[in-house]
Amino acid sequence: MTAIHILFAFDDNFWAPAYAAMRGICLSTHRRGDLVFHLCELGLTGEHRADLEKITTEFGAKLVFYDLATNRDFQERCANLPSDKRLNQMMYARLLVDVLIPKDVKRIIYFDCDTYVRAPIEELAEIDLQGFPIGAVEEPHADFITRQTDMRHNMDLFDPADPYFNSGMLVIDTKKWRDAKVLDHLAAKVADGTMDRIYYDQDFLNLTFKNNWCHLDQLWNLIDPRAPHQALNPKMVHYTGRNRPWNLVSNVAFARVYRHVMTNELFYRYWRHRLKRRVMKFLRLNRLFTKT
Predict the structure, then answer these.
(1) What residues have CB less than 8 Å from 183, skipping those under 6 apart?
(2) What is the pTM of this model?
(3) Cα–Cα distance between 39 and 23 in angstroms, integer?
(4) How confident is the model at residue 5 (pLDDT cuts 50, 70, 90)?
(5) CATH classification at residue 195
(6) What integer best gives the mean pLDDT of the chain?
(7) If DSSP codes are grouped into helix, strand and coil, which group holds residue 38?
(8) Who wins on pLDDT, 195 or 126?
(9) Domain span including residue 229
């Protein structure tokens, strides 16, 4: 059968959610042997890579790694783009689909790592994009993301009457993506200062594909899901809020089952990893204030 290509992009601090996202996809389809995961990674340790490679052992899926630390295209085009402490340059990696992914891949599905797929992935792999270069789900918080306080921000860039999508899940026709010359648009938006004004890659993609995207079922990207949303039986949930399913205490949808998708062993190991990072950050800040 035809391979199903899926793209993730993450740094080493997100290796465990990436594993859980892949494992959720594998558990929700009978076509596990057809899955090809393209993993754009930054700073991945050997231990964490070995965790990810368990997907191949358990399910027979294929993993293809792309080391962005040594990738010239990523470093030259994305490494100096606007970011913040929560969203680093890795969010731009998906923009390099046309230079990273082999030309023989006709369609690829991108997911953020803070997602949990619950329906057969082949539904997306085979969905009719109606001639559009990408398929996506409308963003329910678009008004605040693009226009912010009093709905007056960036009105010269975003018309409030236009639809706006969430970029945490994208079904991509790779040929039409290349035809859209995404990286040329990126260079132009950097040059004219637009990238300094907008909400990073999501706003950029909405500008690039304005009114040129296929609207997919809202259940394929249910944003910030809480426990009552489980009744909707969503196909994919997207944990965009501060309350994440890998927290020890969480009220997000499917929090209990997510822990087992990640596996208990990795869940608690990831919790210790995050705790250690918080402690180290506190100690660094404490030293800084002590010196001053």
Answers:
(1) 77, 95, 96, 98, 99
(2) 0.94
(3) 14
(4) very high
(5) 3.90.550.10
(6) 92
(7) strand
(8) 126
(9) 4-291
Q: How many domains does the chain have?
A: 1
Q: Is 157 helix (H, G, I), strand (E, B) or coil?
A: coil
Give CA separation, 156 vs 145, 146, 197, 207, in Å. Answer: 15, 11, 11, 11
Tokens of 182: 């995404």
pLDDT of residue 290: 65
Q: Residue 182 class from Cβ within 10 Å (0-12 exposed, 13-18 middle, 19+ buried)?
A: buried
Side chain identity, residue 126: E
DSSP state of 112: -
Write b or e for each residue in 196-216: b if 16 or more Cβ atoms lie within 10 A of its Cβ, otherwise e. eebbbbbbbbbebbeeebbeb
Residue in the block written with tokens 């630390």: 69
| Cα gap 91→79, rounded to integer Å | 10
Instruction: Say how far residue 169 (Cα) sits from the centre of its chain.
Output: 7
- The tokens for 57 are 């052992």
